[in-house]
Amino acid sequence: MKRIALLGSTGSIGRQATEVVDWFPEEFSLVALAAHRHTDLLAEQVKKYQPEVVVIYDETCYGALKEKISFFSGEILVGMEGLIRAASWASADLVITAVSGVVGLLPTVKAIEAGKNIALANKETLVAAGPLVMNLAREKGIRIVPVDSEHSAIFQCFEGDGQAVEKILLTASGGPFRGLTGEQLKKVTPEMALKHPTWNMGHKITIDSATMMNKGLEVIEARWLFQVSYDDITVVVHPQSIIHSMVQYGDGSILGHLGKTDMRIPIQYALTYPDRWKNNLTRIDFAKLAHITFEEPDFASFPCLRIAYEAGREGGTYPAVMNGANEVLVDLFLSKKIGFMDIPAGIERILSRHQREENPSLEAILEADRWARKTVLEVV
Ligand code: NDP
Ligand code: MG
């Protein structure tokens, strides 16, 4: 029996993770659940999974949750303190980090320090603090298995210790606005951006997919997970999202990972690794798959991808600042306070003002994130 702490249990990844747990009730149990403020679903999950601890981050929702789970005899915790306690919960073997945003960084660090293996969905953690988190995991002998579909694909195609890896080919759907010009993109609305062609995900990552910042975050995530240089990570637009990514080797072989666009596949693999278990999902029917196509990313219309490569190459506190500014700008776009192209413009303005720190501590990274969030409100 693998005992799991699920941070972000009410979200898109969180809910799909509970489905995977449901498929294998003899093998998995959920000992900790955490959400931000959705008490209804969280209460249902507490009833169903009987965890040892439940966290509601927003303190103002504590009363409502407590009332809904009056039968619950375990601990109910709040805030960052609560998330950290759940992430390092004594009986948990594995932590699934499925919260959205850099709020996942500190709990992930604490989980690693407590010796928990990590199924990592929360890419913002590696964007903001890649070297620090990977070094800590190495020191502690902790396995970080990616949940992000592209990284799960690369992880499965990455042979041995990455010997003779020439290149990572990171595939991208291109999002809902593939083919539009920068001029046309100025007028797109949140409603249009939230209609992703191939994946159904939380709001923040869906907007990131529309700006291509998601692919930029994934480039940085891949750089740290697989210890490859930015020059060796190439983004390939592949609108059908059938090939989830590829690894190119020095002998001319390219290994790719194919599958349906269903996050339960990489989630399951992260929970069963190093084993592969059978499930009943439908498979790809190649006869019905008319064609798969590839194209180059449009760096001119989607500046976020270029910005992420640049911030990643600069390193230090730059990626954390880029990420923090992006989180705030995505919220402002979703609430219709700024336009779509104000997202990359705002990030560039913030990065140009930032005094970069070379080898930041965790505290310096969190401070850079706070600075970016505050300052971005002054520049847009
Ligand atoms: P959602 O917005 O759907 O869900 C986020 C989850 O995190 C919710 O359960 C939310 O709770 C919870 N949460 C948010 N903030 C806090 C907080 N401060 N404390 C505790 N819980 C919190 O996001 P997704 O599931 O789409 O994405 C989660 C992560 O996975 C992101 O980092 C994303 O980039 C990554 N990812 C997602 C993919 C997908 O297909 N969705 C694919 C690849 C990666 P509440 O419901 O109460 O708000
Ligand atoms: Mg992805």
TrEMBL record:
Keywords: Isomerase, Isoprene biosynthesis, Magnesium, Manganese, Metal-binding, NADP, Oxidoreductase. Gene3D superfamilies: 1.10.1740.10, NAD(P)-binding Rossmann-like Domain. Its EC number is 1.1.1.267. Mn(2+) binds at residues 148, 150, 218. Pathway: Isoprenoid biosynthesis; isopentenyl diphosphate biosynthesis via DXP pathway; isopentenyl diphosphate from 1-deoxy-D-xylulose 5-phosphate: step 1/6. One of its GO terms (biological process) is isopentenyl diphosphate biosynthetic process, methylerythritol 4-phosphate pathway involved in terpenoid biosynthetic process. InterPro entries: DXP_reductoisomerase (IPR003821), DXP_reductoisomerase_C (IPR013644), DXP_reductoisomerase_N (IPR013512), DXPR_C (IPR026877), DXPR_C_sf (IPR036169), NAD(P)-bd_dom_sf (IPR036291). It catalyses: 2-C-methyl-D-erythritol 4-phosphate + NADP(+) = 1-deoxy-D-xylulose 5-phosphate + NADPH + H(+). The keyword Isomerase applies. It comes from the Bacteria. Belongs to the DXR family. Catalyzes the NADPH-dependent rearrangement and reduction of 1-deoxy-D-xylulose-5-phosphate (DXP) to 2-C-methyl-D-erythritol 4-phosphate (MEP). This is 1-deoxy-D-xylulose 5-phosphate reductoisomerase.
